[in-house]
């Protein structure tokens, strides 16, 4: 069984994809703010998706992380994919 990915783990991936220099502090409240409002562009979202695939040995559609989506939606999607893979 694949353990669920936590918000802390997702935020870690997000920080690494921006070199840790992102202007917005990622907190529990950030989980429900759109990526666009957090300042993430489409290239950053592609990198986040790619890193999640590599780190957690899974596959996602390229458009699985939309700019109007939120980190919590991404977390839920990734955990559903991992659960379905069991």
From TrEMBL:
<keyword id="KW-0597">Phosphoprotein</keyword>
<keyword id="KW-0596">Phosphopantetheine</keyword>
<dbReference type="Pfam" id="PF00550">
    <property type="entry name" value="PP-binding"/>
</dbReference>
<feature type="domain" description="Carrier">
    <location>
        <begin position="28"/>
        <end position="78"/>
    </location>
</feature>
<dbReference type="InterPro" id="IPR006162">
    <property type="entry name" value="Ppantetheine_attach_site"/>
</dbReference>
<protein>
    <submittedName>
        <fullName>Actinorhodin polyketide synthase acyl carrier protein</fullName>
    </submittedName>
</protein>
<dbReference type="InterPro" id="IPR036736">
    <property type="entry name" value="ACP-like_sf"/>
</dbReference>
<dbReference type="InterPro" id="IPR009081">
    <property type="entry name" value="PP-bd_ACP"/>
</dbReference>
């Amino acid at each position: 069984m694949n353990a669920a990915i936590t918000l802390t783990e997702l935020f870690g991936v997000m920080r690494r994809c921006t070199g840790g220099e992102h202007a917005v502090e990622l907190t529990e409240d950030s989980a429900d703010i759109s990526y666009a409002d957090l300042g993430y562009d489409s290239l950053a979202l592609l990198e986040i998706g790619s890193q999640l695939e590599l780190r957690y040995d899974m596959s996602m559609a390229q458009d699985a992380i939309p700019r109007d989506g939120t980190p919590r939606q991404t977390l839920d999607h990734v955990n559903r994919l991992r659960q379905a893979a069991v």
